[in-house]
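Quick entry, no commentary yet.
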Amino acid sequence: MAEHRDQHSRIRANLLTNVAGRVTPLIRARGWKLGTLYEVYPDDTNLLGLNYNQGERIFIRLRSAINEYLPLPEIIDIMLHELAHVEHPNHGPEFVMLWEQLRWEFGYNSGNGNRQDHSGIHISDQLIIPDKTDANTTVCPI
């Protein structure tokens, strides 16, 4: 049982590292300083991510409600969504414009699929199952 848990912990850490590395150029281009990236696995299947305090902590869903890993493009889009919340806490027009810009830039810059070193983002090995949020958290059902 512990071996199975360790294996999933490694998979999660690898996925988070991979995603962080792929979005590094977007983060650096904007001069954003991010804190820790976590997996979130809430009971609410519509909750795909959380952004706490403008990127101090970002939580993204890696697995579906039936515990299968989501496709990497979907995980990356969740991350891009959360990155847009670094500048815009609500889902208003400015947020949507930035999210679309990040999607475009990511697609334009990631055609070769190469991973890059992540931009100082700490990758957590903790699984987060949120029970509530506070005023500094943007809850993001996409």
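second:
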Amino acid sequence: MSKIGIYYGSTTGNTQEVAEEIAKKLGVSNSDLFDVAKANADYSAYDVVLFGTSTLGFGDLQDDWESYIDKVKAANLEGKKIALFGCGDSSSYSDTFGDAVGKIYYVIKDKGAQIIGQVSTDGYTYDDSEAVVNSQFVGLLIDNDNEPDMTEERINNWVEVLKQAI
């Protein structure tokens, strides 16, 4: 299996929990799981890189991603497989659900990486999202605030999609 690195930003702990669960299901070591508040942007050791963020307020990147995104912009992602995931609130912020995941997507989409792990919008309730491209989410979106009962199934399904793409 390919070497996987997981990079996440988490304010409330939800995105960290999702990152840890994904890591466990993919067999990724804790040494390959990084909080972007303390991480560099050297992805040379990895064939596959997962980026995770929460969406804050009205579509904003998670605080640590605000500065880390510049590192991603400058990084070499050529030939990598990249998957995106994030947490959001589809009820209180239904017009900006998962927007931060979309913001990361638009930074990396033209950097020579293959973006994997797109997810159908079926079964989600929201009004708008920057994370929707070609009628599907660019990655996994989790709403632990309003749909915690769907989190495990969504993660399991996504991990299976990733395994096929890796």
